[in-house]
Specification:
This protein is of the alpha+beta class. The protein has a single domain, classed as Glutamine Phosphoribosylpyrophosphate, subunit 1, domain 1, CATH 3.60.20. Helices cover about 25% and strands about 25% of the residues. The strands form two sheets. The protein has a ten-stranded mixed sheet with strand order 1-2-14-13-3-7-8-4-5-6. A hairpin with a 2-residue loop joins β13 and β14. α3 packs antiparallel against α4, α4 runs antiparallel to α5 and α9 crosses α10. The radius of gyration is 19 Å and the shape is globular.
Length: about 375
């Protein structure tokens, strides 16, 4: 295993990370500039309340600042992280989440999301929901206004409409053109597979040689009361088989939290995560004493050990795909890891400002 945690200055092009929130003023007063940092520098001092703190996948740099801003005003961690990821769900330039997300094989945008609320130990999720921009809000509504955990498809949309969510066309022109390009060039580059064996190769679009769009946003936070909550939301794998849901709406896979331990979430190849329930695994490893980073690395290794199909492996017998994990514990320590990496970072924020935190990894690449 390789673990590179370095303290270095982030290029000035990333300074918008701090400028996107009123927290920028707080950060400036302490002379804070966005930096890539190690997990330990975000830990609270001994005896301090472990919060507020928020973490997310790298595309949530604005999200963690929004979450901290709301927590500082007294918001519950769940309300804060959902509001944070809403910024990405409504951004048409982020083609991995919400409005502007890349569609399925038929050109239809289907979204997945889940939330967990540490204080009440409850969860809610939606899968393959169409026409609703803020899937995370609907997942939260499932938690709050039903006796269920999961709603999918038309039922999820009907539930959203019942609670006042408008049905909208989520397919932007940018995403439509990407879908057309895929349709015009697909052959072995989709998820419909012929009959195959454990040793079959050259089928399915999972290798680096056949680039596929994988994208999601996860956000976890600890609020002023020391309570933990988290959210994951996504448009899923680009050009997926219609009806496919990934790990994001699966409790224990796309996210998991325990108010006495911590929280974890994921991005990357959802199928690998579902088959190993890695977010649950990470929280349990932290319960056993692992640091957030060590727990994330453990989950990465679990996926490596359980990936057996030749079509999913590179020429060195390692997974030809990537999965990333993000975690924080009740002490306010944070960490992340991915299977393949070297330059990966995730976003974190405290009242002192935002940071990019270096991710550990198993394989350079």
């Amino acid at each position: 295993m390789t673990n590179e945690i370095e303290n270095s200055v982030v290029p000035s092009s990333r300074r918008d990370f701090l400028k996107t929130s009123a927290l920028a003023g707080i950060a400036a007063s302490f002379g804070v500039a966005p930096r890539v940092v190690g997990a330990s520098s975000l830990s609270p001092s001994s005896g301090a309340i472990a919060g507020p703190i928020a973490i997310s996948s790298r595309n949530g740099q604005k999200s963690v600042l929004k979450a901290i801003e709301l927590i500082q005003s007294g918001a519950d961690a769940l309300d804060a992280v959902v509001a944070g990821v809403n910024l990405v769900e409504e951004d048409p330039e982020d083609t991995s989440v919400g409005y502007g997300g890349l569609p399925n094989a038929l050109g239809i945008v289907q979204l997945d999301s889940a939330v967990m609320h540490g204080p009440t130990c409850r969860a809610g999720s939606v899968g393959a929901i169409e026409g609703i921009k803020y899937a995370s809000k609907v997942a939260k509504m499932v938690l709050e206004r039903t006796d269920h955990v999961n709603l999918v498809g038309q039922g999820a949309q009907d539930f959203a409409v019942m609670h006042g969510f408008p049905v909208e066309n989520l397919l932007t022109e940018k995403a439509r053109l990407e879908w057309v390009r895929w349709r015009e060039n697909m052959s072995t580059q989709d998820d419909y597979l012929p009959k195959h064996s454990l040793e079959s190769t050259g089928i399915g679009a999972v290798t680096e040689k056949i680039p596929r769009h994988w994208g999601t946003i996860h956000c976890s936070a600890i609020d002023l009361a020391g309570n933990i909550s988290c959210v994951t939301t996504t448009a899923g794998m680009a050009f997926k088989v219609p009806g496919r849901i990934g790990d994001s709406p699966i409790i224990g896979a796309g996210l998991y939290c325990d108010n006495t331990v911590g929280a974890a979430g994921s991005t990357g190849r959802g199928e690998a995560n579902i088959e190993n329930l890695c977010s649950f695994l990470i929280v349990e490893r932290m319960r056993m004493g692992d640091s957030p980073e060590a727990a994330c690395l453990y989950a990465c290794q679990r996926i490596v050990d359980h990936t057996k199909l030749a079509r999913l492996l590179d020429d060195k017998g390692r997974p030809a795909f990537n999965v990333q994990f993000y975690a924080l514990n009740i002490k306010g320590e944070v960490g992340g890891a991915e299977i393949r990496g070297g330059n990966g970072t995730f976003a974190a924020a405290t009242p002192e400002g935002g940071r990019l935190v270096k991710m550990a990894y198993l394989y350079k690449g």
